[in-house]
């Protein structure tokens, strides 16, 4: 009982922190805008300069919303994959889902020149990109699942993820050889990861995809808890494992694929955030972890996005670089902790 | 020792078990007949690779018999839905648990899954059953410990508590005494015997500890390459069925000593 109260306090603090980082994220940027003006433009009040309002509504707000969606979706995907694969090192980036999505997008952006005009137009639309990316990540997820059923070994699955990464990287290289400089530039920018520059219409498409993913994940909270004891125990407690696995795969592909389609591959969030949530909340209960990963994922990506803007500087770093700088040490630390945490 | 029809909870008559379909079919054992009785502790023994695990998988409904049917409460086990079966049959496995932060309490509480709502929230009745299960297995003092902080023997008891919380008529355990020292083996089997007699549940467990099984089980199922025999330990000893377990003339069962003897020069 004591624990549940403590968890509630922690969750409420995360909600407050989310609100705070959200406002901070919007108020910082290359153009300095007073905080009162930021607040006014968000609430529809008087803003002294129209350019300020324009920057906030059409540039900063969409970026912050993207950061929240990406943080929530990627982190929740990571949590689902870690339980499904019974593997603490699982996550959409590590297991090559982002590479799969990249491959899908690379096919679309880089080979569009080879297609007749109107078809290229269909493919290059937001729907085309989200579809290609989701299919790409679904393909990789299914392959990894196939391998994981044969090899129940943490390291082996990681290596397979790495191999998928190299493989898709190589295919993308081949594709770039045949593409124009303009297409190449477009793909390179995408691959660096960028939360900004999205139209509201795209954000709505992504938000719908991720909401479906989150609802599917919520349905699986109870079976996920059963899966903590392993597949056989879960089945013996009346869980329809095949059905649950199918729902989880669809949910992860929608969220990880969709986010990668628009924001580019964002490394380590999916891996690191669920672990942070597990450490802070000291539980494996997916009902708690569900909210904890959603909230902390959003907070972490908002913070990473603030770092990319390097306050007081005109430069913007790629989001992928920042998350990697934060995330890679987390992975090494996890591996070192392995023995203690009874990871086998 | 009545074996009237009402007393039998799970039965299989002349089934064959194994894997595969058509020409690829691999038969592990033919003409298997067993009958598990209410409130009895039954041990399943046999040499490595004889098909104990396949038999357990078949009678828990995980895989279908190649021919014949497994009757659970006089109804084909395939006809139960996952949830229906989960409310009547629970299992305890040898394999370790995947890494997690689960506490002993949480593990036992997971046993209530077949009864809880879509979020798995525990009602008052569930909490009472979990507490009872912890008390029956004498693991109440471990309630808030993480499962990886306790000993193998304690974890085995906790997993049995989880099966008890699942509140099923039949509990099936796959080699529960492996990894335990003699003292803990004996205390675990005594616990199982106590549970069958106090709660009226039927328990079936597979084991390699023949001498302990002979002393602490109500009935035994002996699997050999040629046959599957079910009887009381006393009758099995008298009928020299135990001599046939290892299919090796150098190993025999000494009825007077109550244990196995082997020739020194093998």
CATH homologous superfamily designation of chain A: ABC transporter involved in vitamin B12 uptake, BtuC
Largest sheet of chain B: 6 strands, mixed
Structural class of chain B: alpha/beta
The average pLDDT value of chain B, as a whole number, equals 90
Q: Most extensive chain contact?
A: A-B, 28 and 34 residues
Number of helices of chain B: 8
**How many beta-strand elements of chain A?**
0
Low-confidence region ranges of chain A: 339-344
In helices, the fraction of residues of chain A equals over 70%
Main sheet summary of chain A: none
What is the name of the CATH architecture of chain A?
Orthogonal Bundle
Write the CATH fold name of chain A.
ABC transporter involved in vitamin B12 uptake, BtuC
Distance between the termini of chain B: 41 Å
Poorly predicted parts of chain B:
none
Mean pLDDT of chain A: 85
Q: Descriptors for this entry?
A:
heterodimer, A: about 350 residues, mainly alpha, ABC transporter involved in vitamin B12 uptake, BtuC, B: about 270 residues, alpha/beta, four-stranded antiparallel β-sheet, 12 strands, about 30% helix
Task: Explain this structure.
The complex is a heterodimer of chains A (about 350) and B (about 270). With about 350 residues, chain A is mostly helical. Chain A has one domain (about 1-335): ABC transporter involved in vitamin B12 uptake, BtuC, CATH 1.10.3470.10. Chain A has 15 helices and no strands. Chain A has helices at about 1-25, 35-45, 50-85, 95-110, 115-125, 125-150, 155-175, 180-190, 200-220, 220-225, 230-235, 240-265, 270-280, 285-310, 320-335. In chain A, α4 (about 95-110) packs parallel to α7 and α4 (about 95-110) runs antiparallel to α8 (about 180-190). In chain A, about 45% of the residues are buried. In chain B, α3 (about 105-110) runs parallel beside α5 (about 150-165) and α4 packs antiparallel against α5 (about 150-165). In chain B, the strands form three sheets. A six-stranded mixed sheet of chain B has the order 6-7-8-3-9-10, sandwiched between helices. In chain B, strands 2-1-4-5 form a four-stranded antiparallel sheet, covered by helices on one side. Chain B contains eight helices and twelve strands. Chain B starts with 7 loop residues before the first strand and ends with a strand. Chain B has helices at about 50-60, 80-85, 105-110, 125-135, 150-165, 180-200, 210-215, 235-240, and strands at about 10-20, 25-35, 40-45, 70, 75, 90, 170-175, 200-205, 220-225, 230, 250-255, 260. Chain B is an alpha/beta fold and about 270 residues long. The interface between A and B is medium-sized, with 28 and 34 residues. Chain B: GO terms for molecular function: ATP binding. Chain B: It is a peripheral membrane protein. Chain B: This is ABC transporter ATP-binding protein.
